[in-house]
Amino acid sequence: HVQLVESGGSSVHAGGSIMLSCNASRYGDSDDIRYMSWYRQAPGKEREFVSTIDRDGTTSYADSVTGRFTISRDNAKNTVYLRMNSLKSEDTARYYCATLFYDGSSQIHNIWGQGTQVTVS
Asked: Can you tell me the distance from the alpha carbon of 26 to that of 109, in angstroms, rounded to the nearest whole number?
């Protein structure tokens, strides 16, 4: 199965840049990690979609981050990254990594990491 661990969250000044990383520890070679995504949740708000990338490199972004954030993926390392540029105070949130994968029985699973905090001031 799959286990996700995020890293890279920190406190940064407005206009700054950081990069988040999420490693998917894959214990079974039969697990097909199809999508890796980033979500975020600010206090008092629902978790919202930020970006996603499939194993072929196709990406999508929320309107709020388009042009500022870039998602990338290293399939060999089972790692997804989120480069965050031109950070704004409204980007302050806990960022969660998620993956959609198929197991050896072709069943879909969605796994979430514990999140990493990004604070922009």
From this structure: 13
Q: Which residues partner with 95 through β-bridges? A: 40, 116
Angle of CA points 16, 17, 18, to nearest 5°: 135
Q: What is the pLDDT of residues 57-114, one digit of tens each?
A: 999 999 999 999 999 999 888 899 999 999 999 999 999 999 988 888 889 999 999 9
CA distance 72 to 25: 17
Per DSSP, 31 falls in state -
Best CA proximity match to 120, nearest among 79, 75, 65, 60: 65
| Neighbour count for residue 36 (Cβ, 10 Å) | 27
Secondary structure E strands in 18-90:
18-26, 32-41, 48-54, 59-61, 69-74, 79-84
Under 8 Å between Cβ of 68 and 101: no
